[in-house]
Specification:
Elements: H1 2-32, E1 40-43, E2 49-52, E3 58-64, E4 74-80, E5 83-87, E6 104-111, E7 117-122, E8 130-135, E9 163-164, H2 174-188, E10 195-199, H3 207-227, E11 235-239, H4 252-258, E12 260-265
Parallel strand pairs: 1-3, 2-8, 10-11
Antiparallel strand pairs: 3-6, 4-7, 5-6, 7-8, 9-12, 10-12
Length: 267
């Protein structure tokens, strides 16, 4: 009886040791196991793509399979900082096999060195090779476009009012003095603007006489503006005689409109 209980105790002790080692082993193994490397997946449906793949990371490239003729996608060039080809398509099918629309072939690469890799894969039934550019760091951001050039300063157009004269006169009428005072204020606000002071006559009288009369009218306006504080260098008088009519000379009203001085900014 004593021997049987001793034997049972030994068996129970051995069983406990075995069970403890079984349950303890996975925890110790999992603690020693390195973390699984995250893979980079690329479904290469068009050429010219660019991705980032750090050193040590695995790249899994899938490509479409449109028909089967024992001519799989193959690596035509793996240049730059080449990627290590770990595995490629290895399934064998009969020549008359037609793939599903979603059929793909898969390549497995791994980056072992830094730098830019250029991966080119080709297939006879594709019109162009599939090119994949693989960087080992994020591509630099595209440079910001230069700021647009500043818009040119829009200068406000200087508008000056002209005055009219009595028949055969070059004297400024009292009612027109207020108009010239406004013109003087505008010219003071634009000291760098030269102004043509153009005198005109109606159609009555000789050509030579009207040229001199229009000159006197232009000079009369210049004198008034100079007395108002405008530099004479800013004013350019011209006498144009009986030209550039703005109204008919067949009526008194029309002739009165033609006897005038215009102030035109010299742009």
């Amino acid at each position: 009886m004593v021997k049987r209980s001793l034997r049972q105790s030994c068996l129970l002790a051995c069983f406990a040791i075995v069970v403890g080692s079984v349950f303890a082993a996975p925890s110790s193994l999992s603690a020693a196991r390195p973390p699984r490397q995250v893979n980079q997946y690329v479904d290469l449906q068009d050429t010219g793509e660019t991705i980032t793949l750090p050193v040590g990371q695995e790249l899994i490239v899938t490509l479409p399979l449109r028909r089967y003729n024992d001519n799989y996608w193959y690596v035509a060039r793996n240049s730059g900082a080449p990627l290590k080809l770990i595995a490629g398509p290895n399934e064998v099918r009969r020549r008359d096999w037609t793939p599903w629309k979603s059929s793909v072939q898969v390549f497995y690469f791994q980056r072992e060195s830094p730098g830019t890799a250029h991966l080119v894969l080709e297939q006879s039934y594709f019109s162009k090779p599939m090119i994949l550019k693989v960087l080992d760091e994020s591509p630099p951001p595209s440079p910001s476009p230069p700021p647009p050039p500043p818009l040119p300063m829009v200068r406000e157009k200087l508008v000056l009012r002209g005055i009219h004269f009595d028949f055969n006169k070059s004297r400024i009428r009292p009612g027109d003095a207020a108009v010239l005072d406004e013109d003087a204020s505008a010219l003071k606000a634009n000291p760098n603007m030269a102004v043509n002071v153009n005198g005109y006559c109606d159609a009555i009288g000789g050509e030579e006489y009207n040229i001199k009369l229009s000159d006197r009218r232009a000079v009369a306006v210049v004198d008034y503006l100079v007395k108002s504080g405008i530099p004479s260098s800013q004013l350019i008088p011209h006498g144009y005689g009986k030209t550039d009519f703005v109204a008919t000379n067949d009526t008194a009203e029309g002739r009165a409109q033609n006897r005038r001085v215009e102030l035109v900014p010299n742009e």
